[in-house]
Specification:
single chain, alpha+beta, 60s Ribosomal Protein L30, Chain: A, three-stranded mixed β-sheet
Length: about 100
């Protein structure tokens, strides 16, 4: 992950995330849908979900460019701030069948 993060809180979150994340599943290589429920400690959150998407690289998927669908839900819980994340592989788009070439005679 890039060290361009300047916020002390973001760096702290990164360390906590890395300690709590299980890396026992194979990485998804296809496009994904990410659903996040983020419970903030206050109404003035400074955690951006893009940091979480970045941190999931190498944990759930190869690259955050694979995220094609996002569902982000905002909650408030001062006693227990947390994030619940679900990453799902999106089905491959169905290819349209080619129509047979018409012959001219």
């Amino acid at each position: 992950m890039s060290r361009l993060i300047k916020s002390h809180k973001a760096l702290t979150y990164t360390e906590l995330f890395q300690r709590q994340t299980k890396r026992d599943q194979p990485l998804i290589h296809a496009d994904v849908r990410v659903t996040m429920h983020i419970w903030y400690a206050s109404r003035r959150p400074d955690l951006d979900e893009s940091l979480i998407l970045d941190l999931l690289q190498g944990v759930a998927y190869v690259n955050d460019r694979q995220v094609k669908e996002k569902h982000i839900y905002w909650h408030l819980d001062p006693a227990e701030p947390r994030t619940e994340i679900v990453v799902e592989e999106l089905p491959m788009p169905k290819k349209k069948p080619r129509s047979p070439k018409t012959q001219r005679g």
